[in-house]
Amino acid sequence: MKGLKQTAPAKVNLALDILGRRPDGYHEMRMVMQTVSLRDTVALEEAEEGFALFAQGIALPGGKTLEQRGAEAFFAALGRPVPGLRVTLEKRTPAYAGLGGGSADVAALLRLLRERYAPEMSREELEAIGGQIGSDMPFCVRGGTALAEGRGEVLTDLLPLPKCRFVICKPDFDLPTAQMFARLRLERGDLPRPDVEGMAAALRRGDLQGVAERVGNVFESALELEEGREISYIKEVLLRCGALGAAMSGSGPAVFGIFAEGEGAAWAVETLERRYAQVFQAAPVGRLV
To answer: Would you call 91 a catalytic residue per the annotation?
Structure first.
């Protein structure tokens, strides 16, 4: 097989709300998610036997990786054994940042496997395979702009985000997702819940200002003091440089700002790079499948 490649775009959570814990132990989510052009690259080749993963820029964990689990779920759906595969990741999206980088890589691998082995497979089937691996995997398979509900796997396409620029900054610490869920106190009455319905309405109007004014993330209520200071500082810089809105993405700690034009975005990048190593510009990306 000639080698195949796919980009693996990151995602930001324009709005992230958590409604409560479900009987199955997961949390009921309500989010507006957006694919952005900050991306990794995933390459696939056939090998004589086994599953081999090579990653540039990250240390691989021991044991079975998400990529291997994704490949096994894909071929289980086809009712056939996993062939020998070699997967190579070129990493650019920060890990453990709330940007879905790992999920995006697996989603790109699933799209490659469908292209090579099952082009007749529907998007819905591919998303369902992704959902076996992670709750945000169906969105990372699909991409674009979407309302995500349930565990994050129930998707409704929304109208695309108007033309804009993102500046994304990851501070120099990680926030494990499980830890952030454990910190949440959903019974509090003062949680900063984003206006998801208002954001969807602004998208229908093509109103970038209306979208940006409604960005928000309930996980910001679970930040500890020093973490919160760093997140607030990044948001303040973004807004001072002209962002229409700014918020933390996912379980953090990456923060994004939405800019209507590139000059302010470039100023924000220049300012943040004086303090942080991981600062990026990006644009919205549409549907991937």
So the answer is: no
